[in-house]
Amino acid sequence: MKVPLQDLARGYAEVRKEIEEAILGVSASGRYILGPEVEAFEEDLGNFLDAPFVVSCASGTDAILLALAALEIGDGDEVITGPFSFFSTAATIVRLGARPVFADLDEETLAASPSEIRGAITPRTKAILPVHLYGQPAAMDEITAIAKEAGVAVVEDCAQAIGATIGGAKIGAWGDIGCFSFYPTKNLGAMGDAGAVSTRDESIDRRIRMLRVHGSEDAIEHPIIGINSRLDSIQAAVLRIKLRHLDKWTEARRIIARFYDEALTGLPIRLPTRMEKAPSVYHQYTIRFDARDDLKDHLESLGIGSGVYYPLPLHLQPCFQELGHTPGDFPQAETAARQVLSLPIFPGLTQAEMEMVAEGVRSFFEKS
Questions:
Q1: pLDDT by residue (tens digit) across 203-218?
Q2: Which of 4, 75, 216, 278 is most buried as measured by Cβ atoms within 10 A of its Cβ?
Q3: In terms of residue numbers, what domain contains 252?
Q4: Both 16 and 158 in a single domain?
Q5: pLDDT value at position 225?
């Protein structure tokens, strides 16, 4: 038996009939981009997130780009974010002509530390962009307080943590704007690229709606220059179906995480921190271990999938050399990049597979 890191086909099989009927309905409608299915998805997602305004778009990367553009972030501005995240978080800042300013990690959440964020604020800071990594919410109560004190906006990167809450309040509503990705491997995944932006500000909502269709409301006049980032109706239909199952799938992830917590306790590895006030939705179940690569190779030899997210911190990426960072600038991020290893966790993972993963990890240390 082999255990994959991810198996999208299992998730599809569970909702196959619903999805096929929805796709056929869109095909027959003749409305393939935006339209009623997209509007219905935006309403459904808004209800799920407790957000009055939701704008869908073509990807999670575009969601961040649209959010920052809506805040008119550009040349000379600074946006504070963490150096340990998916590439697009920092790349969108640079694409708009602004400068990413990195704040080292909080060891528990692996998001940017509030104290590091406070120390990174300058007169040029326009926004803070925290990332809810691996499904674990960042310390938004502290981050939003810092932002309010400094008079800057907060844009949440919620790509890996849809449905997560802090004190019962959904992420995406703590900041001025929340950004979501529906890449197929996400907890709520489309059958292609898709994304969305949430906000409580009607003026931001209107501006993002213009920005996603070339900066126009009527396809005649273009008050601003936007991009082409419309959501396909088929993706919206798929996401509407899957959204109905998301709470159940989140609980399945948490059950798997609890099993791993119990099965791996006592080993010389660092398990994900459990935070009662802000429980994870476990986009990834990520352990930390100094000899990570050796453990990964061992699991692979047993037919067990695992992943490293992310092996190279953003401040050391070649394309960001002009920022002037060198190894050692953000030690927490660099240590995490050397240690993190994500184990299989997805709805549909069987008990036998979970036990095989746990036994595979334990056998590495028994062998050692």
A1: 999 999 999 999 998 8
A2: 278
A3: 246-367
A4: yes
A5: 93
Residues 325 and 213 in one domain: no
Q: Are residues 169 and 255 in the same domain?
A: no
> Is residue 2 assigned to a domain?
no
* CB-based contact 62:227 (threshold 8 Å): yes
Residues 176 and 188 in one domain: yes
pLDDT for the residue numbered 243: 98
pLDDT exceeds 80 at position 333? yes
pLDDT at residue 252 is higher than 90: yes
Query: In the structure encoding, which two tokens stand for residue 347, read together?
Result: 């709805």
| H/E run at residue 14 | helix 8-29
Beta carbons within 8 Å of 206's beta carbon, 6+ residues apart: 217
Q: What is the pLDDT of residue 134?
A: 98
Q: Which residue type occupies 8?
A: L
Q: For 313, phi and psi rounded to 5 degrees?
A: -60, 155
Of 243, 274, 298, the one marking the end of a domain is 243
Contacts of 333 (CB under 8 A, 6+ apart): 82, 83, 84, 102, 104, 105, 313, 314, 315
Residue 128 phi/psi, 5° resolution? -115, 135
pLDDT at 367 (0 to 100): 80
Query: Given CA atoms 351, 352, 357, 362 in this order, what sign does their dihedral have?
Result: positive
Reply yes or no on whether the pLDDT at 368 is more than 80: no
Q: Which long-range contacts (CB under 8 A, 24 or more apart) does 115-123 make?
A: 117/80, 117/143, 117/146, 118/146, 120/80, 121/80, 121/146, 121/150, 121/152, 122/78
Distance, in Å, from the CA atom of 365 to the CA atom of 368, rounded to the nearest integer, reads 5
Nearest-angstrom CA–CA distance, 178 and 153: 11
Q: How far apart are CA 343 and CA 365, in angstroms?
A: 16
Give the global pTM: 0.96
Backbone angles phi, psi at 33, to 5 degrees: -130, 130
